[in-house]
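Q&A log
Question type: sequence-to-structure
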Amino acid sequence: MASISLRNVVKRYGHGAKANPVIHGVNAEVADGEFVVIVGPSGCGKSTLLRMVAGLEEISDGEIAIADRVVNQVEPADRDIAMVFQNYALYPHMSVFDNMAYGLKIRKLSPEDIRTRVDKAARILELGHLLQRKPRELSGGQRQRVAMGRAIVRDPQVFLFDEPLSNLDAKLRVQTRLEIQKLHRELGVTSLFVTHDQVEAMTLAQRIIVMNAGRMEQFGTPEEVYGQPATTFVASFIGSPAMNLLQGEIVGQQIRLGQATLPLPGAAPRQGKVTLGLRPEHALAHTDRRHAATEGAVSGTAWPLWVEMVEMLGAERLVYGRLGGQGGEPFTLRIDGTDAPPQAGETLQIHAPAERLHWFDAETGQRLDG
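Response status: OK
Response body:
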């Protein structure tokens, strides 16, 4: 196993004045045995960053070290890594056993050693009964497990996963996530996992790198990026539905949101223009049975929410409306699915507990202390 160090890593395509930078000085330290997920929207540079660790993309500037060895000029085959791709990349004419064993045969390992490694990986991934089948005889989830098995038999220092669950349906994605978690618990190999899916990131990661436009917005535990987002981008990207972000101006103990002026439940970090964040599940309404049904029993200050639409999602409902009244700022509220839903055109009184508010600089989007 090995740690991974990213030291001011830069990637540019082209040269000179026409060079196009796509990765802007990423710094991160991944501990030995840690499972880190790189998450972000399409085009943010997450796969490019992973491919630089793998050696499939050249580094324009900075250093990448694996197990304290700088690998900038090291060939991919010599980095002691194993990569799992989105498209499985299995040989269709080979059996499951031969697909998993092929790389070991190229390295000229003995048949006994190959059999031992393949059998161990097959046991871990529950593929023992499928070893003689061809890829066309397997489901998508089984093919992905074979691809992971091919990586396991390498016994590498580092696993790299490039959106390996993207081709699976929703049920298989959940199942395969659990298998990857079990795999990491059993093997303890340092892992980098790229995805655009924040649910995968939150459920798999020990720590998360959130990427945006080639920059690392935040590197922290799932609890940190959810509970204390460093920027408005992280706040809006992590969490479903997204955090409500309200552009306003603090005047005394009130916030002006468009034409509405609302009281604050506590002190703001500063006066003037700010972005106020509040997650849909942290705004409390009288219809929410998770909390007391009387205004006096709920901490916070009442704000009017004019209801536009309600979505039923089984265990919960999402209420879409306008904060401060009709024509106000868009706002999403999450309530319990067993509560009687409000009607379109109705005005709810909601509460914003002071400890649940997030404050950001209106210009830079950076988190404010307060």
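Response note: DSSP finds eight helices and 20 strands in the chain.
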